[in-house]
């Protein structure tokens, strides 16, 4: 299945500046592995040492947070849109 993955600005240096990449994958986990194969260094930014999606990284499948679906096991369909959104903190 081909899915479109939106890349946030801080990670675009790993994708050659691309703000969106197309990846073949059946699950979110496979998508992350295939992103890593095509763009080395991405997986370390997205996942912790145990392979879980980092707490400060949000992954959305068609506007649904995968944490509320099946996490890394969430199934993807052809044409799905995945957005990687780093959490933002700060303030006064």
Structure description:
With 92 residues, the protein is α+β, with helices and mostly antiparallel strands. It has a single domain, classed as Ubiquitin-like (UB roll). The chain has 2 helices and 5 strands. The protein has a 5-stranded mixed β-sheet, with helices on one face. Strand 3 and strand 4 form a beta hairpin.
Largest sheet: 5 strands, mixed
Helix content: 10-25%
Q: And the CATH topology?
A: Ubiquitin-like (UB roll)
Please report the first level of CATH classification, the CATH class.
Alpha Beta
The number of helical runs is: 2
- The low-confidence runs, each spanning 5 or more residues with pLDDT under 50, are none
Number of strands: 5
What is the overall silhouette? globular
Strand content: 25-35%
CATH superfamily: Beta-grasp domain
Domain unit count: 1
| End-to-end CA span | 44 Å
In short:
With 92 residues, the protein is α+β, with helices and mostly antiparallel strands. The protein is built from 2 helices and 5 strands, in the order E-E-H-H-E-E-E.
SSE topology:
Blueprint: E1 2-6, E2 20-24, H1 28-38, H2 42-46, E3 57-61, E4 64-65, E5 81-86
List keywords for this structure.
92 residues, alpha+beta, Ubiquitin-like (UB roll), five-stranded mixed sheet, 2 helices, 17% helix
